Amino acid sequence: MMSYVADFIFMPLIAFVTGLGLVLMARRVRAKIERRVGPPVLQPIYDIVKLYAKKTQISHGIMHDLSIMMLLGGFITAEIFLPVPGFDGLAGEGDLITLIYIMMVPMLGLALGVGSCANPNGSIGISRALTAMLAYDIPFIIAVTGACMAYGTTNLIEIVQIQQAGGPASWGAATMPLLAFGGLLAVHGMMGKEPFEIYIAPAEIATGPMVEMSGKYMGALFIMQCFQLYTIGVIYTTLFLGGGENWPFFLAKVFAVVFISVAVTNVYGRFKTDTMIRWMWKWPTGIALAGLALVMAN
Amino acid sequence: MSDKLPVIEDQPEICRSVDAGERSVWTRVMNRFADHCRARSLFVLHYCTGCGAIELPPTITSRFDMERVGVSPMVTPRQADILLITGYLSIKTLKRVILSYEQMQSPKYVIGFGSCTINGGMYWNSYATVKRLDQYIPADLFIAGCMPRPEAVQQVLLKLMEDIDAGKANGWQDYYNNYDRYLGNQQALFGESWHTPTDVIAEAKHYGYLADGTMGRHTDLLLKRADYALDRVPEDYPERGKNERRLP
Amino acid sequence: MNTVPQIIFPVAIPLIAAFLLPIAGRCHAGFGRIFGRAAVLVTFLASALLAWQVAGAGPASSAMGGFKAPLGIVFYADNLAMAFVLLLNIGVWLFWPSGDEDRSGPYTLLLTLLGGGAGLVLSGDLFNIFVFYEIVAVASYGLAASGGSAAGFGASLRYLLLSALGSSLALMGIALVYAAAGTLNLADLALLAPDVLRGPPGAAAFLLLLIGFGVKAELFPVNSWVPEIYASAPVRVTSLLAGIVSKLALIVILRFLVLVFPMPSAYGLLLTLGILGVLAGELAAYRARDLNSTFAWSSIAQLGVIAIAFSIPGPAGIAAGIALALHHAVVKPAFFFIADKWRGDVKLLSGGARTSPLVAALFVLLSLSIIGIPPLPGFWAKYLLLDAAFSSSPAYWLAAAVVLAGAVVEGAYLFRAAGFFYGGPQKGRGAALFMPGELVPAFVLGAVLLVAMFAIAPLGAYITSMAVQAADVPAIAAQILLGGN
Amino acid sequence: MSLLLRRRFFWEEIDLMSLLDILLLVAALLASGLFVLGRGSFAGWLATVVYGLMLAVLAIAGLALDSGVAFIPSAMSFEILGRNLGWRLDGLGWFFALLTVGAAFFASWYGSGEWGRKQKRMGLQHALLALNVLAMLLLLSSGDLLSLFIGWELVSWAAFAIMTQGGGPAVAAAYRYMIYALAGAMAVFAAIMLVQNVTGGLGFADLQTAISAMSTAQVWVLFILFAAGFGVKMALMPFHLWQAPAYSETPGASSAFLNAVSARMGLFALILVLVKLTGLEALGSLAIPFTFMSAKSALMWVAAITMVVPTFIALMQTDARMLLTWHGIGQGGYMLLGVLVGTSLGTAGGLMHVFNYATYQAALFLAVTAVIHRAGTSDLDELGGLITRMPWTYVTLLMGIIGLAGLPPMNGFVSKWMIYKSLLDGGQPLLLIMAFAATLGTILSVYKLIHNIFLGQLRREHQHLKEAPVSMVLPMLILAGIGFVTGFMPGLALNITDIAQRAIGGDMLPHHLGGVTLATGSLNMLWVVGVLIGAIGAGALIFYLLGNRRYEVHQFDNYAGGHFLSADIRYHFSHEFYPGLARVIGPWYRGSIVRAEQGIGILVNVAGDLWQAVFRVAYTPLYMLLVVVLGLVFTGSWGIVP
Amino acid sequence: MSIPAKLNDVLHEMPGIKVRMMNERRVRVDLSPDTLPALLEILKGRLGYCHLSAISCVDWVQTDQFELVYHVWSHMLKTMVSAHIFISRQPGQFISVYDIHAPAGFFERDIHEMFGVHFEGAPNLNKFILTSWGGPPPMLKSFNTREYVEKTFDWVQYSPDWLKDIEAKGGGID
After folding, report:
1. ipTM score here?
2. What is the maximum span of chain B, computed from C-alpha positions, in angstroms?
3. Whole-model pTM?
4. Residue E167: helix, strand or coil by DSSP?
C-alpha cells in the first residue's frame, strides 16, 4: 500500500503541470497562426488562480458542487491508472477498458452539474457533448480493440513493454498504421478542438456547458482541460507510440500528439452535430475498421 | 422625481480596503499573489452596447493583441471580469447592462468607452439615453473621446491592470456598500417596480459587504415587491406586460 | 363372454319409451315429461349395468335371433362403445329440455336419438350401423327445428338435404363393400378385407362411407351446416349435437378404419380432411364476430383435431382421439350455454366480468383448458395427441404443427373476447346478467373439468386400456364370430 | 468461496429433501392466502415477511449447494400417462430463484407502503405477485422437460394475469404478449415432443442422448424451436415488440418485479437447455452451410443485435417507463452474449449481469414509480427540476443509471467489463464494438432520463412537491445500495454466480473479493472504486479549501442573453433531447419488424374470411357432387400409387 | 424628364390633385386626406405600386397640422410616388391603410407612439419601442426634450482648470 502513496500524489501533479504546458502550447500555436504574440508563459496559471481567487462563488445547488468534485476526482483517478515512465501507478489493478470507463465518469459528472444549473444553453451543450462522445468513441474503440487484439493483452504496462521490446519498429503506429491514423482522428475529436467543438460553440450557446460556471467552478474546468489534454495524449502515446521509455522522449511524443491536433484545429470552422457524426462514422471508423481487418487477418 | 445629487469632484483616492481586523502575513501574501494574478488574467465581456464595439476586434486580434497581457474575450457575464460599456446607453439597454453587471462575479470592473457614458455625449439632450453611467453601476475607468481608438483602449486596460495590481479597482464593493443609492437612481428611471433576478442584498450579507449604505428607502421598496421565491411572478415585471401581443 | 340379453336394452328401452310417450302424454299433460326422464333413467341404469359387466368380463356380443354371421344382426359392446353410450345417456339427461311446453314432440325425438345413438355405437353390422345412423339423423333434424324460428327451419332443411345426400353416398359405399366382400358383418369384413378391399374399389368405398358418416362427424367438406344449425337450434340441442352426437359418428368411422379399411390411403384421407378441418375451423373462428358462431367454428376445428388423432394408426392415436373427444364433450356444451345468453357482437359484451364475474371466470377456465394449458385436462389430451403424432411418420408432424398453430389462433380469439369482458369499459347495454338457473349444466361441466384435473392418471390409464382393446382386431373378430350364438 | 460460512453445521441436520418442499409449500400457501385475505393492508407486510423467510431458506439451500451437493431433490413427483414428473433445485435454478424472491421481496415491500394504499386493487396485485413467484419457483426447480414446460406455461400465464391489472391499454398490451407467449410455448412443446419421439423419454438425460442420436437437420429444428420458444420470453430481437408496452403499463411495484426478473426466465431456460444440456461445443459444431458461422455464433449475433437496436430505440422514447423497458430488452442481449462466449469469464460475466441488472433495473423502476406517485406523470416532456424536491429519489435514479450505463462505482461496470474481456480474449472484435456502441447509447439515453426528470427548470406546478414517503424511498435506496456494494466488492456476487456456474458445468472462474486477476489484464474494484472515492474526496478538498464560500442562487438568476427569466416561461430543454443524432439515425427507424407483425395479423384475417366464404355455399347438391368427384380422384390416384 | 404617361393620366383622373415631378424617379402628389386611400388603391391595382416603403409624419405646430407622407414604389414603372396630406393636429385622427399595404401596420404604430396620431382600423397601436416611456409622444415639437432632460437627469459638473481658462477666453459649451 505504502508504495502507491508516491504514485497517488505525483502522478496527478505531473499530469497537471504537463497539462498546463499543453494548454500554453495550444494558445501559443493559435496566436502564432493568427500572427499574434500569444499569452505569457504563466498565463494558464494566472487564469486558474484568478478564477479560484474570485470573491463571490455562485452555485446552483449541491449537485453543481458535487459535479466539480466528480470532475476532478474522475480525472485524478484516470491519471493514477495511466502508466508513465517511472510511475506505474495502479495500471496493474485496472486495465485499458477500465481506464476508458473511468474517463467517462468526469464527463457524466460535468453533465449532471450543468444539468442542475437549469440553463437551456448548458443542456443543449451537454446534449451535443454526449452526441459528440458517441460519434468519436466508436472509431476510438475500434482502434483500441484492434490494438488489444494485436498485443493480446489489455494491461497497459505489458502493452508498453511489448512496444518497447523492438524499439520504434515495434511501435503500434509502425505495426498498425491504419489503426493508429484512425485513432488519431478519433483522438482529435476527443480533445474537443475546432472542427468538433460544437458543444462549446461560444456564438450559439454561450460556451455550452460552461455557461453558468464561474469562479472556482470555471477554475476546475480549466484544470479539467489540462488533465483532458494530458490523458488523451498519454493514452494515444501508450497505445500507438510506444509509451514512455524516459521522460524527455515521452513528453516530446505527448506534445507531438497534441500539437498535431492543435495545429489542425485553428484552420477549420465548426462542424454541425450531424455533420460531425457522419464524418466521424465515415472516415476514422472506415480507416480503423480496415486496420482491424488487417490485424484480424494475421 | 429623483432628488438632485450634490456635485462630486473626482473620485477620491480610496486606499486598498483593509479586511476586517489585522490580517496575518499568510493572507496578505496570498492576497498580494491573488491581485498579481487578477491583474494578469482579465476576461472581457463581449457586451457591445453602443457604436464603440468596433474598436474591440483590433485591440484583441493581431494588430494590438491584448492576449499578450492576459486579456481575452469571454461570452457570458458569469465568467467575465470586465464589463465594457462602448457608447450610448438607451434606457432599455441599461436594464440589460445592470442585469449582466449583477450576474458578473466580483471583483468586477466597468470601463466606460467614449463621452456618451461620461456625460451623455452627443445624445446629451435625448429623452431616451442615459447621461451618466456611474449613477447606475459603479464605473472604474472612463475613456474620453467619441469612440476612442484601440491605443486608448489598450492604455485603459493597462491602467486598470495597474489599479488591480495595486488593489485600487474596488468599484464593485461600492455597489454593495451603497446599493441603496444605485437602486434609487435605477428606480427613478425604470419605476418603482424595478428589480433584477439577482438578490444583491443577500449576496452582500453572505460575503460580508453590508455597509450602512446598502439598505435604505429604495431597497425597502425592492424587498416589498421582488419575490425571489419561484412561484410568484410580479405583475409588472419588466417587459412582461400583458399587451405584449404579436401583430396579427 | 357369452351372449348377454341385456346388450339390447340400451337400444330397446328408449325406442319403446319413445313409442309410448305420446300415448302417455295424451292422457295427462305433465306425465309426458316425467315419463321421458324416467325412461332415460332406466336406460342409463341398464347401460351402466352392461358397462360394468363388460368392464369386468371383457367385450360382449350377441347375434339377434341366432342367425350366423353373414345374415344375422350382431351387437358388439366393448369398453369404448359402452363409454360413449354412457356419455350419450348422461348428455341426454343433462340437456333434457326444462321448458314447460307440454308438447311431447321434442321428448320423443330425444328418446329416439338416445336409442339410435346407442344402437349406432353398439351394432357390429355395417347395414345395421346405417339404419341407426338414419334414425339419429332424423331425430337431429327434428330437434334442430324444434327451436321454432324461421332460421331454424331453413337451416335444418339444408341440413336434411346435405345429410340425406350423405346417407345415399354411404349406402352406395355399403353396396360397393357388399358387392366386393359378400358380407356386411364387421368381423367377417375384418377377416376378408386384406385381400378383397385392397384396390381402388376399397378406397372408393371408404371415401363414400367417410363422406356419408362425415356429415354428422362435422368432417371438413361436409360441415357447412354446422354454423347455421348451432346458431338457430335451442342451446340444449346444440350442445347435445356438438358435444356428443358428432363424436358417435367419429367412433363409427374409427370402427371402419380399424376393422375394415386399415390401408394407408384411408388413414391419409382422414388425416387430410382433419387438417383442412382444423385450418378451416380456427381461421374462420378468428373472424367470427359473435360468441355463438365462434364456438361453432371452434367445434369444427376440435372435431378436425379428433379426426387427426383417429387417423394415427395404432392404439396411441385412438387413445388421444378418445381423450380429446371426452374433453371436447365436457367443454363445448358449457361454452354454448355461455354463448346462449351473451348474444350479439363481442365488442358490445364489454364489462361482462363486472355483471357476472363467475361466468367470465368459467369462460377463462374453459378457454385455458381448450387451448391446452398444463394443469388442465385439455393439455394432457393434446399431449397424448402430440405424443402419438410425433412418434409416427413425418406427415403427422405437419398435422401436429397445424394443431399447435391452431391452438395459438384459438388463444388469440378466445382471449380477445376475454379482453372485452375484463378490460373493456361498460359501454352500451354490456353483457346481460345471468339468472342462476340458466347456467346449472355449464357449472356442472366446469366442475367436472376441475375434478378431472386431479384424476388425470386413472382416467389416462382407463382410456389407454380402452384404446388397446378397440385396436385389437383379431380378438374383436373372434368375439363377434364365435361368441355370437 | 472464502466469504460465506465454511463451517458445516446446522444445515446437515435438516433433511435436504424438505428444503425445496418448504419453499414451494410456503409459496403456494402465500399465493392462496393472499387471494383469500388480500383486502387487508397487512397483506403486503405479511407477504414481505414471507418472502424474507423464503430468502432465508434459499440461503440455507445455497450453503448446501455451495458445499458440493449437486441438487436439492423434492418429494413432489407424479407419474402421469406413462411419464414421471419430478422437481429438484440445482445451482442454476437456485441462482435465479434467489433473484426472483429478492425482487418479489422489494416489490411487495414497496407495494405495501403508501403507494399500495393509493392503488385500486392492491390486494389482488399482491396475490398475483405471489402467484408469479410460485410459478417461477416451479419452473426453476423443474426436474425434467415436461415439468419444465408446465412451469414455463404457468410463468407466462401468471405474468399475463399480473399485466392486466393496469386497466385499458395494459389489457391490450397483455393480449399482444399472450399471443407471443403462446406461440413460443407451442414451439417449446413441439421441441419437447420431438425429443420424446427420438428417445422415448422426457428427462434431461434424454435430451442429451437425443442430441447425439438425432440427424443434424433434426438438431437444427430442435435448436431453432428451443431458441425461438425461449427467445420470445427473453424478447430476443425478432420477438421483442411485446415487452416494452407490456412491462411499462403494469402498475409500479409489479412492473419493477417483471422488469427485474420475469424476462430472465427465458434466459434460465435457454442456459438450461442450450448451454447445460446440449453444450456449447455441440452448438458450435452446427455449421451453417456456405458461411463460417455456426448456430452458436448466429445466436450470439442475434444477442448482439438485441443489445444495440433496442438501446437506440430507447433513446427516442419520451416516456420514462418505456425508455427503461426498452433498455431491459437491450440488457438481455448482454447476458445472453456473455453466457454464449463459452469461457468461464464470459459465463460468470453473463450471470453476474443478470444479478446486477435485477438490482439496478428494480431500483430505477421503483424510482420512476415514485416520480409518478408524486408528479402524476412519467412523460419526460412534462417533468423537470425535481432534484430540489425529491433528492432521495434522485440519488436512487442516479445510482441506477450509473449501474445501467455500466460506469465504475456501480456493479453494472464489473459484469460489462467481464463480458468485454471475454469477447476480447474470445477473439470477437465486432461483437465487442457493438457491445460498446450499445453502452454509449445507454449512457446517452439514461442521461436524457435523469436530465428531463430531475435537472433543469422546476415547473410552477411542481413547486410544492414533497419527497416520496419513507416506505417507498427505503426499498429503493437499499436496492441501489446493493448495487454499490456489489460494485465495490464484486466478489460477493461472484460467489453466488459460482454456484450457478458449477451447475452449468465447465471450469470455474478464479476470483477474489475485488474482482478478477487474469494474465491478459485484471480488474480490482477495491482499488478502482477506492481510488475513485479518494480522488473525489481530494476534489472536495480542493473545492472547499481553495475558493471562497459558495453562495446558492435560485433558478431564475441565470444567464439568458440579457433576458429576464420568470416562472411562466418554460425554457427547460427536454423535448427531442438529441436533435443532431436524430437527424443522422432518424431515417434508420423504419419499423420494419412492426410492419412484419401487422402483416401476419392481416394474413390471418384474410385467411379467416376465405374459409368463412367456403362455408357459405348454399346449393348443397352441386357442392356434394364436387366433393365426391374430388374424393374419387384423390382416392383413385392414391390407390394407383402403391 | 417627364412623368411616365400611364402615371400621368391616372393621376389626372383624381379630382383636386396637384402633381409635381421632383426628379426623374420621384413624383410628388398633394391631395385631400379622404381621397388618399383611393389613390393608393388605384396606384397599387393598375400601376403596380405595391411597395409602401414608409409613412413619415411632420409636425407643423404653427399651422396646427400634421403632414403625413406615403411613399409608394412601383417596380414596374420604377418610380416612387410621395402622397402628401395634411390633417389637423387637435384630434390627430386618420384612417389606417393597413388593408391596402400590410407594412402600414408598423409605420402607423410608430407614428402613433412618436406623434400621437390615432389611425382607426390599425391592427395594433400598442407601445412599440418606448415600452417603459410614460411621457407624451416625444417627437412632437410641443415636447421640450431639453427641459425634460434637465429635469430628469443631472450632469457631472466637470470643470477642470484647462476648461476654465477656455471659458475665460469666451469659449466653452454655451
Report:
1. 0.86
2. 68
3. 0.89
4. helix
